[in-house]
Amino acid sequence: MKRTLCILLAALMLSLAACSEKTSSDGDAAPSSSAGDSAPASAGGEPETDEPARLEDDLPETDLGGWTMRILSHHDPLSDESTIYAYELTGETINDLIYNRDLSLKKRFNCSFELIPGNGWATDQSMLEASVRAGSRDYDMAFLLPFATSGALITKGLLYNMLAVPHINFNQPWWHTNVNSLYTIEGYLPFVSSDYLISSYQYANALIFNKKMAEDRGAADIYGLVRDGRWTLDAFERVISEFSLDVNGDGMFTDEDSYGFASNFGYHAITWGYAVGELGVRFVDGEAVLGFNDERFYSLAKWLYGILYGGNLTFEIGWDKDCEINWDTDRVFMQAIWLADLVKFRDCESPYGIIPYPKYDEAQDGYYTYMDARSGNMAIPIDADADTVKNAGLLMEAMSCLNYNDIVPEYLNSIMNYKYARDPESVEMLGYISAGRRWDIGYTFSSVDAGNIVWILDFHLKSTGGDLASKVASIEKVNRKTYQRILDGYADLAGREW
Q1: C-alpha gyration radius of the chain
Q2: What is the mean pLDDT of residues 163-179?
C-alpha cells in the first residue's frame, strides 16, 4: 500500500513540476495542491515520496526446456484476459509492456505461454472442473473469478494449495499479503493475488463528481472534506441534494432532468456496506460469522433507501450499462464507477474529480471500498503434477516481480498521463481509494442471489423500505449453513498431503 501511494504521489509531483514548468514558459498559473503536505488518513501515516528501488525476484537460473504454461482465463464482455496477457504488440502502453514481459520470460527460462479464454461468465470454473474430473490436465494455471461459484472451487476441491508451491515468496512486496492472508484458512490457500493482476487496482469502486457543476453551484470543497475526514454519509447527502432538478418542468424526473447522483442499484449499491467498514462474512475460530446485521448496517440501509428510492436524488443506471445521461450534458453531479471505467470519460469535455466513497461518520478510521469480483485471482489446478506446480510457481513469481517493477507503476501513472485524472487532487484521492480497498470472503464465495447476505442491499432494499433487520434474520440460518460448508471444505483440503 505504501508503494502504491508512493507511485501516485510521484505522479502528482510530476504533474506539479510540469505545471510549474508551463508557468515559466507561457505564464499560465499552476494549480495548487496540499497533497505533498497531507497523507491520506486511511494510509496510516505519511507515505514515502521516494520511488522504491527496482527489486529482483531471486529465482534460480532455470531452463524449462520449452515448457508451455497453459493459462485458463476468465473472459466476458466486461473483463477478460487483457490485464494478464497480450497477443501482439499494438502500440498501447500496457498491452506492449505485458507482451514484452512475457517475451523476456520466454528468453530467460526457455518457455512459452498459451492463453485459453473462457466463453462467458463463470465458465472458467466449469472448464477447470471438467478438466480435473476427466484427469486431462488441460491447464497449468488459471486466472479465475471465484465469485458466482458459491464456493464450488473449495467444496469440490479443484485448487492446489498455494502455500505449498515452490518458488513463491510471499515476503516479497509484489504479493498482496492482505488478500492472501484473508483466504488462508487452516493452512490452505486456494488462490492468490499479486501485482500480476492489474485488475486488482482497476476494479476498485470509486466516485467521480462534475467539477463544472460544482463551480457553477458553489458546492462544498469535496477534496477538503475528504482530507479533513469530514466526507461522511451526511456530507454526501447534503452535497448531492443541491443538484436534483426537474429541468424541463414537466413534473416528472426522467433522463432529461438533472440528478445529484447516478448509480447502478445492484453491484454499486452493495459497495455502501463496505464503505462504512462492514464485511459480509468472516471465518473465526472454525465458524462462519455473518456481517451486515448490526445497528450500524441497518442505519446505513435506511439512509441508502432514502438516497436511491426516497426522492429524486439518484438516477438509476442499468445493470452493466453506461449512464443514459451523457456526462457532458452536466446533468449528473456524482456517479459511481469502477476505476476501470475512467477510460470512458477520457474524451469528456466536462471536467471531473475522483473521490472515495464517504465514511459512515467522522469517527470511522478511514475511507473504504470493495474490490469487484473482476479483480480475479490466480490458482493452480489440484491435479497438477509436481513439475507443473514447480514451473508454474517459478513463472508466477517472475511475472509478479516484473509487474511490480514495470507495469503497475506505469498503469498508476497512466491514470495521470492519460488524463483519466485531470487534477493533482484526484491523484491524491486515488491514494485514499487504493489504501482503502477491501476484499470480502463472503462476496468472493457468493453468487448473485436474493438469499445471500452479501446482496441484501441489491435485492431487498427497495421492497423493505430500507428496514432490513427482519430480512437478515430470515436468511441468516441458510447463510451460516452455506458458508460453514465452505469452511468445512477448507478443513478437508488443509488435511491433505501437499
Answers
A1: 23
A2: 95
Mean pLDDT of 452-461: 94
Lowest-pLDDT range of 45-59, 74-88, 101-115, 220-234? 45-59
User: What is the CATH classification number for the domain harbouring 227?
Assistant: 3.40.190.10
Query: Strands across the sheet with 259-264, in order?
Result: 314-317, 259-264, 332-338, 205-210, 352-355
CA–CA distances in Å: residue 51 to residues 9, 420, 421, 450: 10, 22, 20, 46
In a domain, 5, yes or no: no
Domain co-membership, 443 together with 355: yes
Q: At 431, give phi and psi (nearest 5°).
A: -65, -45
Q: What CA dihedral angle connects 14, 421, 43 and 3, to 10 degrees?
A: -50
Q: Which residues contact 301 (CB under 8 A, 6 or more apart)?
A: 457, 461, 466, 467, 468
- Domain assignment present for residue 401? The answer is yes
Encoded amino acid at 239, one letter: V
From residue 88, give the alpha-carbon distance in Å to each of 101, 165, 170, 483: 12, 30, 31, 42
**pLDDT tens-place string over residues 79-105:** 889 989 999 999 999 999 999 999 999
Closest CA to 123 of 144, 140, 106, 139: 144
Q: What percent of the chain has pLDDT over 90?
A: 67
The structure's pTM equals 0.85
